[in-house]
Amino acid sequence: MSCNTRLRSGDSVLSRCQSIFRNTPKSKQGRKLQEFLNSNIGNLNITDFSLHSIGVILFRYNKKDIFQKFIDDILPNLKLITLPIKFYGKITKTSKNLKLDFDDAYQYSTAKHYGLKLVTMDKNFEKIKDVEILFL
Fold first, then answer.
1. pTM over 0.85
2. How many domains does the chain have?
């Protein structure tokens, strides 16, 4: 299962809620993710799209308690951000030009708008040149 959600970190965006919930600190990706989160705690952002996606997935699998714990633990330590409405019309063009699906185009557009670095495990971002990308 891939969900292409992102947590944003001060200057960064973490990709894939799957990694948040399935990778343990024992795995290499889990350790990298945990290290990244720990080193950026208090300076994190999350897009509304990411938060909603995490909620949809956890509710679908009847993991409402995990979503509540996530909200209780993480929301006090981050800022919720959204792409301003006036930029929604550019998502289609961005998707076509960069060959990104909607969620990747949304995350890219939001990162670009706020001048953020995109932190991801998603190889679709390898071709991006005008937004700094950090691959975990």
1. no
2. 1
**Residue 1, in any domain of the structure:** no
CB atoms within 10 A of CB 4: 22
Structure tokens, 56: 């949809």
Domain span holding position 11:
6-135
Consecutive sets of 10 residues in the chain, 136 residues long: mean pLDDT of each? 39 41 62 81 84 94 93 86 96 96 95 89 91 86
Residue linked to tokens 């889990």 = 30
- The answer to whether residue 14 sits within a structural domain is yes
CATH number of the domain that residue 31 is part of: 3.40.50.1010
CA distances from 103 to 15, 77, 125 (A): 11, 24, 12
41 Cβ partners below 8 Å, 6+ apart? 77
